[in-house]
Batch of 2 targets.
Target 1
Amino acid sequence: MSSSKLLHKIKSMVLITSSATALLGGYCFYKNDERLFDYVLMPLMRLFEAERSHELAVKTCKYKILPSVDYKDPDSLNTRMQNIFLKNPVGIAAGFDKNAEAVEGLDKIGFGFVEIGSVTPFPQSGNQKPRVFRLIEDDAIINRYGFNSDGHETVWKRLQQLRSHQRYEGVIGVNLGKNKSSEDAVKDYVDGVKLFGPVADYLVVNVSSPNTPGLRKMQQKDTLKDLLVNVVKENLALDLPRPIFLKLSPDLTDTELKDICGIIKKKECKVDGLIISNTTVDRSMILHSQFNNEVGGLSGKPLKEKSTRMISEAYKLTQGKIPIIGVGGVSSGQDVYEKIRAGASAVQIYTSFAYHGPPIVTKIKKELEEILKEQGHQTVQDAIGKGITYQRKSWFGLF
């Protein structure tokens, strides 16, 4: 065979192989194949710096460059948070879609609800880069974004467009934050309630991010009481008041958590739910990754047990009367089930989505569906708080 014919044959084989590979890859992408994402696409994303990968992920959701999802949520996954109906209990946590750019894409992936933000009154760029670090060996992420936000006005316009022109009916939560340079933090949150109430299904008072100086001090008893009195008052002035959720730090002491649960029961401070928890600054757990000493909030698997324990304590302190959204280390149906048994009505994911992409959502839901069946639960709500045990006291209260 002449060299020219051999070269032509090799080129043809390469073209055929490349075409077949592209077709197979396209088919696997379209079918939301978990292996394609875990072994090809997500490792490719990790070739980019972490924040750049985050930006690309938001863009793919924004422009709906997404795989098809054949899985239909069964009735067993339906649940409620106060008067909010959820088709399934798996939401995307605040911090992924900070500026309400990708809501419809996230809904298409199969999330039961989408929480955007944190949103600050005025645009701000956040902390200096680099500010996001992958801890791959630990299935974790450390971030110190610092509430980078397009600001109230821009984000409100996007949500208004979604609601009024695109007729979007999915559940949207708006996570509210304060500007770093703000001289009146209470006003920042009150303004957020007033503006976003008409376009959100629920609102979140986020006073627990570790990346804004002084923010976590707003969880202190007197400061929190003053904040919630004003937030609740503004919410009740809306034509249609929205459920208010309070997002807490996992680094609270038992006494601090008890104080907060006491405050939120008071009529003038009464919130409609808790989100447990935000990221942690605790590094007492053993971490193996290169960036384990970076400053910022740690999310992912190392946070799982800590957040689940806190959910359980908060559920007991509130007698199960206040819905809880569980966040921290959720990457499987079993993780969701554990948080639900600890008292969560729904959960949110972030880190597992960053590492595994869209297929993780369907995977978690399928696993949860099977677990509920195996455990004899008709719905998610049947399992809420079923893992809680209360300490018994003697009849005369001395032991």
Target 2
Amino acid sequence: MSSEPGPPEHPRSTLPPWARVLDLACLAIVLLAAVVAAWGGFRMRVGGIRVALTSPYRVFAVAALIAVVRHLLVPRPPIYADLPGRLRANLATTPARTAFGALVGTRPAILFVGYMAVVVFGFGAGGRAPYRLSDNEAANLQVRWDMPWYFGIASEGYHFNPNYHGQQNVVFFPAFPMIWRLAARLLGGQTMAYVTAGTVVVFVCFFVALTYLFRLARELTGEDDPARFTVWLLATYPFALFYGAIYTESLFLLGATAAFFHFRRREFVAAGLWGLLVGLTRPNGCFLSIPLALIAIAPWLPRWLNGGADQNIEREPGRKRFAALVPAMLTSAMPGVGVLLYSGWMWYFTGNPLQWAAGHAAWGREYVGFAPLIADRYDWLVNAGLYTYSTYVPTDFLNTIGAFFALACAIPVARRLGLAYAVFILINILPPMAAGGMLSMGRFSSVLFPAFIWCSTVIPVRHRAGWLATFMAMQALNATLFYTWRELF
């Protein structure tokens, strides 16, 4: 059943669109001036160019100039009367309220579980944290596994030694650490400012990603109820702990859901920008181009292959025109463009445009195919048994559960939502599985949002509480492993 209608997602305003954009820009710059006044701003170099933002008065003057220009061109309604109401209305929409509830209801709890696991159980092998930014366990809680690598890029930039064949930070894509760097510099640039800024960035990205997920799920299912359950399923998923860690999962989920949402609506500028962000966020970001291209050609595909409901907007007859296909295909290429941009810079920086890919060998990621993976798991299950498998390699067992969940959802997702959504699952789970086995498979499965949309349509209402409770209990277990430096990453 659909829930009662809430406030409109986009409240009406008498202002033209460009004036609303100026109002939002003015507010953002005023907030920036307040941040600079509180923490002193920053000085840094970007591509050899010195960039400084240390005077709140100059920043505020820019905001004042924008406000004056806006009011000269459109004096009514004034910004102080129009903008607050629009912001309140947008935050009161069903997607925003659901996303905020899922964020507040899961992220602080999992961080608390991680903190208590550290103080009660201590650390894994070695009995101490391998890396610290603070002696305070609460302040150091976010310093786990890949986070120090992103911290190094955000604070000091990329480094590469051609004579060293160990782990180097060029394998990590730049979008997340650069956003983190900017936020941390605005907060003063001290070590703990980076930890605080990183946490704020992932929380904000997760919140906006959940609002997009709600809106996309509502369009695909036609109702608020499954969309709301989709958001909570993803937020409680056993490997959703990475949405509160200083990792790329929140940013990747945001970019992917937003790109799908806008691309379906043929809002190609927004879809292209989000797709470009995904391509600059993770190596597998370029794969997003494939499902977007499948959405573009959906009107030409036979019904049995394309899947999904006949009323899906991807299959509208008006889209079956070459003139409509060209901009769609160009937009679908943007995630690949993001990877090409980083590869081009990598060529300049290291002499090898694919050094970011070659460097993954130091992390144990080299292509071996599926045969060794299948043979190894078959040997464990048949000759040793499930009990022995889960006892001797428990984290591998947990990651296998995550991979199995994603793969099991692929075919029903294709039937219910469409081919593009199933392909999104497969291209984000099979290549890393072929190159690294079950390493990090649980984390990779956490961003495969079509699986959660499909689950929300088939899990009976009376069973939902049980699913959420089970998911959250397993997430607490995984958080205990992750934050105590057991090998779940």
